[in-house]
Amino acid sequence: MNPLPFIVASYAIAIIVPATLAIAALTRMRRAERRLRAIDPRAARRARAGRHK
Amino acid sequence: MELHAVSSEPAPKPTRAAGFHRFANPGRFLRLSEALLPWLAAGGILLAAVGLVWGAFFSPADWQQGQAARIMYVHVPAAWIALSGYLALAGASAASLVWRHPLADLAAAEIGPVGASFAAVCLATGSLWGRPEWGAWWVWDARLTSMLVLFFLYLGHIVLVRAFDDPIRGYRAGAVLALIGVVDLPIIHFSVVWWNTLHQGNSISLLSAPSIYISMLWPLIFATLGYSLGFAAIVLARLRAAVLERRLAFLLLAQAEQAERQSFSAAGLASL
Å from B140 to nearest chain A CA? Predict the structure, then answer.
């Protein structure tokens, strides 16, 4: 049995699943930061200070 | 009369637990995680890329299993993350039950889905490895079955922490399940020793020299380190998002209460 399709499928799963988790976590984090900045003046000030460092 | 008596004894030294609690402060956690996250993510991507490319293209084929052994470079790191992730989940659950700290509750809730995903990757890649080697996608072998139990423990935890109207009750119930489930970890590890299994024995042990060829060991180490850092980065980003979302919910609630009070007082003034 040619193992190549099994190897390719394994690597695809092992790359796609963590990449999807990472992108979802990053998107959720950025959205929360943006929403917090919109209603909390302290968070907005901290973000501005961080950008000007 | 003195209201506050000043003790002549020196102040007690902060305990190890108090030191640990410093990092559980949400503000300090947000600052620390903001600094750590890019390094963990970059290190994880780099090490995993080196390990996977090395394992896929440059490491030798196994003398017995041939090219199919290259699946090891994704299967073993996923298994390692699934097991160590569950240990982290149990640690957060213990902290949640002992110190009742909200950050520990959130950490346990955020580790669960990530650990479950890696357990699923381990089972899927194991199945893809088993088909060309054993001629079967699945066998009810002690190692495979105990790993499947770990996956179900993760799923049970995910469901349980979200099953109650009162989130605190969900966190407590999830913490109890996570601590009971720890018993599965030594069973997974020693399953290949305690029972006759189709799954191969442990090639790497803390107590003895690895039985794996060195040019196959290095890419495996790189891939495992990369996946470990990646797992830490994903959990940290999710935990950071959860802390920010909770802060957001408190702020919105406070603003709504303030608006309600103002409208009540305006209505009271108007009626006078």
Answer: 21
Count of domains forming chain B = 1
Say if the Cβ atoms of A22 and B251 lie within 8 Å. no
Measured between beta carbons, the chain B residues lying within 8 angstroms of A26 are: 237
Residue (of A13, A22, A3, A31) closest to B129 by Cα position: A3
Residue B149 located in a structural domain: yes
Number of H helices and number of E strands within chain A? Answer: 2, 0
Per-residue pLDDT tens for B56-112?
999 888 887 888 899 999 999 999 999 999 999 999 999 999 988 889 999 999 999
CB contact under 8 A, A7 and B230: no
Chain A: give the shortest CA distance to residue B122, in Å: 8
Say yes or no: A1 contacts chain B, CB-CB below 8 A. Answer: yes
- Residues of chain B under the 50 pLDDT cut: 1-8
Interface ipTM > 0.85: yes
What is the spatial distance between Cα B75 and Cα B73, in angstroms, rounded to a whole number? 6
Q: Residue B60 domain-assigned? A: yes
Query: How many Å is the Cα radius of gyration of chain A?
Result: 20
Q: Which residues constitute the domain of residue B225?
A: 38-198+214-250
